[in-house]
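#data-curation
PF: Archiving a pair of folding outputs for the training set. Convention for this channel: one message per protein, sequence first, structure tokens after, nothing in between. First:
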Amino acid sequence: MKGDSNEQALLKGLANNDSKAIETIYKDNFTMVQTFIISNNGSYDEARDIFQEAMIALYEKAQTESFVLTCQIKTYVFSICRRLWLKRLQQLGRFTQQVDSMEETVAVEEDLVTHEKRNAEFVIMDRALNSLGEPCKSLLEGYYLKKMDMAALANEFGYTNADNAKNQKYKCLMRLKKLFFSQYNIGE
């Protein structure tokens, strides 16, 4: 299989400190891990730290000749990151269930498929948001990301009142929705 030989080449490259292989593994896997950690009480910096720990673990494994990867790299990296993150949450007191029993109750492959689909949707949404243009992009970011209220948005964008800002936000949201779904349907 082409995928298997590519995965083996990436592992070999990682073991030999090949920057292209390392970069490919990062590009293919970090967003998935970042999404998982951020959606589970984490931050971008924590996601970077956990991902780095997983890369070190994979690097050390890849350097041993006896290591045989029986799944895809992304599955392996995700399962390491997931386990590390759940342990970190438990240490910080933000997670109470025993981590050791988690592997038996949650199938990593199912999580992975869900996260890959969500990541693809995030990429499409980002593309749609960037093609939306101004002032819609800033207006929606102000409301949804910065959590600004309508009065503050009206003031910042020069609308006469909060109701006008709300109407404009709605129009922008409908344009974004249209852009998202036109790109989403093409991607499937």
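PF: Second:
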Amino acid sequence: MTLPRSLLLAAILLAACAAPRVAPAPPPEGEPTVMVHLVAHDWHTGIAIRRADIPAGIWPESRDFPQAEYLEVGWGDREFYQKPDPGLWTTLRAALWPTASVLHVVGFPGPVAGYFRASEVIELALPSDGFERLVRYIHDAHERSGAPAAAPLGPGLYGEGRFYPGRESFHLFRTCNVWTARALRAAGLPIREAITSEGLMSQAREIGKVGNSPKR
């Protein structure tokens, strides 16, 4: 018997939420660490890092926010992400077909949990080389078309935010949360890919420190 498409999609999403827990992998004792923050915005997740920690020569777009203490970056479908009310067709298009992507970067003052009071925030400690790999992952996600830095596509959704063109395509199996999970795994964290924000946050709670949990 063939499952209806809606049931198949539900099964995929439930499987993502049910990803098994992973064991923490702390840096060797005495090794310096860099703190990053995983932020949940309902269905979407982002990564916040201290701007001063970004290694020189990586992620040139971060220099567009000279007054910011922290930068939060998220990734998603280019058309859907930039619309406050995307509508049914834009939602289905983003879910069912490969589409262009975009990065959303927001500069803000700290602390992270204070700025995102309505969102769950989890602190994650990275070794310095893992943090550099994370920033390189973000760097490589931008579509620069040969230019030194990508030009913003327009203002962001909140605060001092801007959208930038992304290099990879967005589709059902490469969602914003999959992108975030891959970024954290590139940094060396034992994170499995998760289509939903809860599938990702449930893993991060096991290896990090919950700094803000207003909805739990």
